[in-house]
Amino acid sequence: MPTSKTEINTLAASLLFLTAFILATVYLLAESHGGESKTKPGVALEKPGFLWWEAEVNRSNTFPASRAFAPNTPAEKDVLSGGDWLQTDKGAGATAAWDINLIEGGTYHFWTRKFWLHGPFKWAFNDQAQQTCTRKCTLVDSVSIRKFVGANWVYLGEVTLPKGKNVLKIEALPDTTAIAFDCWVLSKTRFTPNGNKKPGEKYNRTEPGWFAFEPDEDDFSNKALFDLRGMNEDRAGESGYV
To answer: Does the N terminus or the C terminus of the chain have fewer Cβ atoms within 10 A?
Structure first.
């Protein structure tokens, strides 16, 4: 047993250090292996002013069971954002709902990645008026899964949503047969669809002796090192036909 004051202080310091070490170890283990997951089900990317979530992970849906457009191989799964999508070939009147949480409220650009022009549907957030995505929607990009099956980004418009919990509901039109959804995106800023790649994500694929030229998206700031905008007209064609 320690008898001197020095020995007692040394023992107390050692015990304090050991306690701190044990608590830190427990915390790190809980962060990596236990406790509540920081990854929310279905959320692929979340940050202020941006949310990307998977369509196949939903609160509820009435899509009839089907494998008609489901990915069948690893290569096909690799095309889709989460390796799968919500799909059926019996889509008439099918419904689905998603609970989402927004870090910030405000006006967002709303996007979906879906199956070509198939599957016209109505959609609405919360108690807002329904809007319709018809078969005449504009396809922003196109990635083939297999013959006659592909995923395409479609811009649905602007929505104003509050911070916190929101609910998205969709309903396929009565004449719908084929219908499939890969994911949804809400973005306050410019979003350029690029297959299943999220903002800032790169392919990083090169041939020997080459490098991948994948610059970040231009935010058109006034900090450009080499800006030729001043050589252009203020309004295209103002001095004649282009």
So the answer is: N
